[in-house]
Amino acid sequence: xxxxxxxxxxxxxxxxxxxxxxxxxxxxxxxxxxxxxxxxxxxxxxxxxxxxxxxxxxxxxxxxxxxxxxx
Length: 71
What we know:
Elements: E1 11-14, H1 20-33, H2 37-40, H3 47-55, E2 62-66, E3 69-70
Antiparallel strand pairs: 1-2, 2-3
């Protein structure tokens, strides 16, 4: 551990149809991290499409969270 570094206890989990807020958090994080809000945040999918996509057994979307915050 680095001196002065914050401790992060991350939880990684697979997203499902009920995880719209977490998926939107991932998109916001990507928009910032990749400096590309045009592709990640400008036109978000509607809730019905996103829920169906996350419910698809062939889609594996993972999120890392710390205290409920996408990291």
